[in-house]
Amino acid sequence: MFLTQIVNGQVSELALCEACARAKGLFDPQSLTFAEKFFPEEFKNRVDKLVRELTMGEAPRAAVTGSNMLNRCPVCGFSIDDYRRTGHLGCPDCYSVFARELDPGAEPISSVPEESPAIYRARLEKELQQAIAREDYERAAQLRDQLNTLPPANA
Amino acid sequence: MKFDTLLKTPYTWNPDRNTTDGVVYGSIVRMVRNLPEFPFPGWSTEAHREAVAARILPVIREIRGFKSAFYAEMNELSYGQRRALLTRKQLTPCMAARQNGCHVIIPQKKNLFFMVNEEEHLVAHVFNNGLDFDSGLDTMAALDDWLSERLTFAYNEKDGYLTSIPSEAGDGLQLYCLLHLPGLTCANMMNQVTKALEKLHVSISPYFSDAQDDTGHLFVLFSIPGPEGSMEELQENFQDVINHLVRREQQVRRKLQVEPGLHMQDAIGRAYGLLTNCRRISIKELRDAISLLRLGTLQGIICWEEGEQEMLVKLHHFALDQATITAQAEEKGDPALCIRRAAAARDFLNNHPHYFSEINV
Q1: Class of domain B3-253
Q2: What is the pTM for the complete model shown?
Q3: Which of A76, A88, A92 sits opposite B154 (nearest CB)?
Q4: pLDDT higher than threshold 60 for residue A114
Q5: Is the pLDDT confidence value at B260 over 90?
Q6: Of B131, B157, B182, B308, which is most buried by a Cβ count within 10 Å?
Q7: Residues 78-107, chain A, touching B (beta carbon < 8 A)
Q8: Percent of chain A, pLDDT > 90?
Q9: pLDDT reported for residue A31
Q10: Which of A90, A95, A102 sits opposite B43 (nearest CB)?
Q11: CA–CA separation, A2 and A54 (whole Å)
């Protein structure tokens, strides 16, 4: 289940597994719409509480996406849902990307700890694409130069 | 080495040569390793798998005895050939389903073989006779040192060697054991055994992967790696479970032998009668009958001039050879196979002098 909350321009995104969503009483997406429409105050309070709990690390199975968490491995594209469904990981870098999912006691992944060369390359490439898309050619050139200094992928 | 040559090569592991319990056939140590730069095989593209193979295969060729080994990409092997290798335990069911970019490497005179891009990038299995994990672990330690000088493996301080299944990360070693349990099977106790083993984190499955039942009374035990505990603890616990199971099997055999109803003697006599007189026999019937002949040999009911130990090995190899022939022949749809199998069984017994010993109950 995915929740997006915008408060004063700050975007918080939540990705909850089914078990956590049920535990928080958020198991029915239709009832959420209903709650939002008819009980806006209560709904806002409930989501605020959820966001606080998750960012404080109180909900072990929840993976927060957006500014400080990843729910998809930038190297191989494997998602956290794939892992939950199959019990397998996509590549060795998934261990650091999904560290908190694999070990609920682990530190939250703000920027991926000890970012591996492969993840670093993938992140730069993504930023490069975004810079080109918004026609920020100065930034794109910087990123291209940074990429050129890295060892080739799959070397 | 060609596939036909490989099949003519005798099995590198022989039941009962190192053990006298007549239950444990062999021990397998499995070692898995992954390259850090590539996705795991279950999530990789054909190009990734080929790149992994291009990195690993030349290193394997350098190992002594592997230059002339049997090398095959899985898409080169027919269904029958895969089943034949499965029967010989020189391929895993996971690998049997794979295609391009996945390789199997089996040397002629070694108890070690490799798979590339099975569930992990590099998988090595080493067999040893009887209950002997120490030799296998020593072999793997030496192999790991040797490989680590030539390849870099995915590893981190916290998790150890990284594998596609996080719960299996760590030292990347797993233990398997092959057991012959005709006593427990004939006493209809295998369901209880399976449930009890589950509680001890040990799984049990039929030896013959093509069979859904306990044909041949052969089983593979697998120690499920837990989140905690060292390999020493895992090995110790697994060996305790195996030793306990061996004692139970022997108890049941003794109990069945002195049972007034003579059920065991009757079953062994019927199996012998079937093999000496049949004109058509299915592979399941043959496996079960050979299993009972082995039981009769171990219990002193059938005596062989060539000696008990020698014949135990020969009986086992005969059953495996027939299973291998069946695996290949079924692909060709050979209708005369049951007839030829029956003739082979009669010839086997005619060529190995023996007699029945009367057991007084």
Answers
A1: alpha beta
A2: 0.74
A3: A92
A4: no
A5: no
A6: B182
A7: 78, 87-92, 95-96, 102
A8: 5
A9: 43
A10: A90
A11: 13
Is there a contact between B40 and A91 if contact means CB atoms under 8 Å apart? Answer: yes
Q: Give the CA-trace dihedral at A86, B173, B88, B107, to 10 degrees.
A: 120
Sign of the Cα pseudo-torsion (A90, B102, B26, B250, in order): positive
* Residue type (1 letter), B212: Q
Amino acid letter for position B233: E
Tokens of B200: 């001890």
What's the confidence (pLDDT) of residue A53? Answer: 55
ipTM associated with this complex: 0.80
Q: Is A51 an 8 Å CB contact of chain B? A: no
Q: Is the pLDDT of residue A38 over 60?
A: no
| Relative orientation angle of helices B283-298 and B263-277, to the nearest 10 degrees | 130
Structure tokens at B4: 């036909």
pLDDT value of residue A27:
46
In 3-state terms, what secondary structure has residue A108?
A: coil
Domain ranges, ordered by start, for chain B: 3-253, 263-356
3-state secondary structure of B217: helix
Judge contact between B205 and B220, C-beta under 8 A: yes
Q: Is B127 within 8 Å of B27 (Cβ atoms)?
A: yes
List B203's β-bridge partners, or say none.
B222
**Structural contact between residues B203 and B174, judged by C-beta atoms closer than 8 angstroms:** no
Q: Which tokens hold the place of A145? A: 């130069």
In whole angstroms, give the CA distance from residue B282 to residue B319: 12
Query: CA-based diameter of chain A, in Å?
Result: 57
pLDDT at B138 over 90: yes
Grouping H, G, I as helix, E, B as strand and the rest as coil, residue A14 is: strand
Residue bearing tokens 């269904």:
B79
- For residue B342, the model assigns a pLDDT of 93
